Amino acid sequence: xxxxxxCEVKNLTTYKIGGIAKKIYFPETQAELTELLKTLDDxxxxxxxxxxxxxxxxxxxxxxxxxxxxxxxxxxxxIFASCGVKGPLLSQKAAEAGLSGFEFMIGFPGSIGGNICMxxxxxxxxxxxxxxxxxxxxxxxxEVVYKTKEEMNFSYRHSLLKxxxxxxxxxxxxxxxxxxxxxxxxxxxxxxxxxxxxPSLSNPNAGSVFKNPENDSAGRLLDKAGVKLYDxxxxxxxxxxxxxxxxxxxxxSEDILTLxxxxxxxxxxxxxxELKPEIIYIGNKTEKEEELWNILYR
Length: 298
Description:
This protein is α+β, with helices and mostly antiparallel strands.
């Protein structure tokens, strides 16, 4: 297992933002992951860091990064995947096996752990749709447990994992048989949509900034509030979709939070709607960042 001390985090995140973490662990097996969870007292578990804003001022605890946990298996219509498996890879492998249900993940940079944590979804599909059960580590009891789909408390951009007591080890899915050509056609349409509307990772970003309010679209509200004009020295709102923030180069976590508050305030002023962040903030905060964070995450 690779262990790095006093390591800069920014190159692990899709935002390319992040300071120094005291210690970073990269477990390669599920046994290594569970052993770390049993022995460490102070830790945060992350995957591909694709919806993370990591503090430019670092993090004083331990990070566990699951990207080396890449094991998966396909048996008939069942798929078993470790928490660190990339969503696009599993989408492609499912398609090759003639299995439908993961087409939406083809354009997602996240891992299975992150996707389940936030109940990721797009184009009418969600990761929870085909989930059978999860193998989890119970942080309170310090033991491995299993939870069915019904026990995972899934809702819009939420799951049991977000409640803080569990870490995903691996998951079991049951997909539907379909024609490989039909599956790949749907995947291609999904990719074309994302490439037209959303920025690629060559423009560092962390995906959608805010969650959609009930029966509405955060992107629509932000667009109508005029935030596409917001262009600061190191960060800007994406010109093709108002719910994305781009790191123009050398941006800090404070730059992102500042622009998020500007966007939040614009929608609140025009529509009296308080948008909720989809991006997760991790790490140490300055006094200014604490002030911005309290506006957004209260």
